[in-house]
Automatic annotation (TrEMBL):
PROSITE patterns: THIOREDOXIN_1, THIOREDOXIN_2. Keywords: Cytochrome c-type biogenesis, Redox-active center. It is found in: Cell envelope. It comes from Celeribacter marinus. GO terms for cellular component: cell envelope. One of its GO terms (molecular function) is disulfide oxidoreductase activity. This is Thiol:disulfide oxidoreductase TlpA. CDD domains: TlpA_like_family. One of its GO terms (biological process) is cytochrome complex assembly. InterPro entries: Redoxin, Thioredoxin-like_sf, Thioredoxin_CS, Thioredoxin_domain, Thioredoxin_ResA/DsbE_sf.
Length: 197
């Protein structure tokens, strides 16, 4: 009886410390928000994402959960959206810096976006580190409750939404880079922690 009670007490204490640690992680990331990243809403708990398919640049169908097993920055945008076009070079710079550490940056063109227009914009803007994806009927955007553009969501390793930013932002600002560094550091195993500067 004593052994069972001790085991239950230990289990409860471990569970509570795990919950406290998760809360601390969310608070730590929230504390890194500055300037345009202040609009980033960090969720207390990860939110499931829909299994609605979208199309990769190579024509393959994909879901948010199937993208990768690391942190993902998914940007809903359109060629006709001026704020979307303004922030894309910063997303490209973020991808260039953090892709070697496992970050995936996925801009999903939602609605009517002719591929020649996307490719012309990427060429003119010098976008080289990210590939576009397509949501031509805006089904994924609707299922993700994207009501305007741009909207950027950060997904964890399981494809669950952990943060969301509505509107444009400087995704290569010091604040954005600190947030991504923190998230990648939290997702790394004990032997894979990111090096400290």
């Amino acid at each position: 009886m004593l052994k069972t009670s001790l085991t239950a007490t230990l289990y409860t204490a471990l569970s509570l410390s795990a919950i406290a640690a998760q809360g601390a992680d969310a608070v730590d990331v929230a504390a890194l928000r500055a300037d345009s990243m202040k609009k980033l809403v960090v969720h207390a708990e990860p939110k499931d994402t829909p299994s609605t398919p979208f199309m990769l640049q190579n024509g393959e169908e994909m879901t948010l959960a199937g993208l990768s097993d690391s942190i993902k920055v998914v940007n809903f945008w359109a060629t006709w959206c001026a704020p979307c076009r303004k922030e894309m070079p910063a997303l490209d710079a973020l991808a260039k810096e953090f892709a070697p550490m496992g970050l995936s940056v996925v801009p999903i063109a939602t609605g009517h976006n002719p591929i020649p227009a996307i490719e012309r914009f990427f060429g003119d803007a010098g976008i080289e580190s990210i590939d576009y994806a397509l949501d031509p009927k805006s089904k994924l955007a609707r299922d993700m409750s994207v009501l305007g553009l741009p909207v950027t969501v950060i997904l964890d390793e399981q494809g669950r939404e952990i943060a969301r930013l509505t509107g444009d932002a400087d995704w290569h600002s010091q604040s954005a880079r600190d947030i991504v560094s923190a998230l990648l550091g939290q997702s790394a195993g004990p032997e894979e922690q990111m090096p400290q500067n």
